[in-house]
Design goal:
Largest sheet: 4 strands, antiparallel
Number of strands: 6
Number of helices: 11
Helix content: 25-40%
Oligomer: single chain
Strand order of the largest sheet: 1-2-6-3
Structural class: alpha+beta
Radius of gyration: 18 Å
Bound molecules: iron/sulfur cluster
Length: 236
Amino acid sequence: MRIRYHHPIPDFYEVDNPIDPLDSVSDDFLNNLEQFILDKSFVGVSYSKLSLEFRKRWGIDWDNILILKYLMSEEILKMKPSKEKTKLEDEEFQEFGHKTFEIADFLRKNNFNADLIHPLDDTISLRAIAMQSNDCIITRSNMCMFKEGLNLGFFMIKTSIENLPFKKENEMLWVEDFCSTCGVCIDRCPENAFDENEKVKRKVCTAHKEGCSKCVLLCPFFKRGYDKVKKRYDKK
Ligand code: SF4
Ligand code: SF4
């Protein structure tokens, strides 16, 4: 059983899935969809195509995923750990969850199947799906980082659309090398929440209980941003 960071999100669908869904999009529709997502205050969208092997491993029969990314508020992240902070983080999560249902409805209205993958579903790892996008990396601090920022939250929609712009190669693998020479997140964790294999001990980490964000706040990727860290890394 996973530790719960958030409260469940109720269903907000207002439109049913189409009876005879379409499976391909035009470039124009994709541009409109991406703009619709940005207009909902998400910072970007990534796409995962789940391989047959992946689907077998997780016992699922769907494969086309939209990953809707939002920036977690820096103002909240910088608050001292408290119940109030975790409440605000959850409210932000609920707000973007609600918007994800609106995006699914937008797809349904346009004759595509669209269902939110529930973030609290214990049967599937959203991180594992995210890594299939070739558009993110798991940092040494155990965060799933996309280029838009370390402080990203995301929601996912599975859809009937087969021709999404899936990435074939991951350009972020260099981060593993960078992290191997850094280690600030582990050295400065106030709870010593990393085990000998550098895995986060969920029961020790206080992120979910009190909203500790220290490993995010101290990370160069948060302080300077992905592009600046990459530029400096490339110079070396
Ligand atoms: S603090 Fe350093 S080691 Fe930890 S995730 Fe950030 S870059 Fe990687
Ligand atoms: S959130 Fe805080 S307690 Fe948890 S691993 Fe990061 S620094 Fe440690």
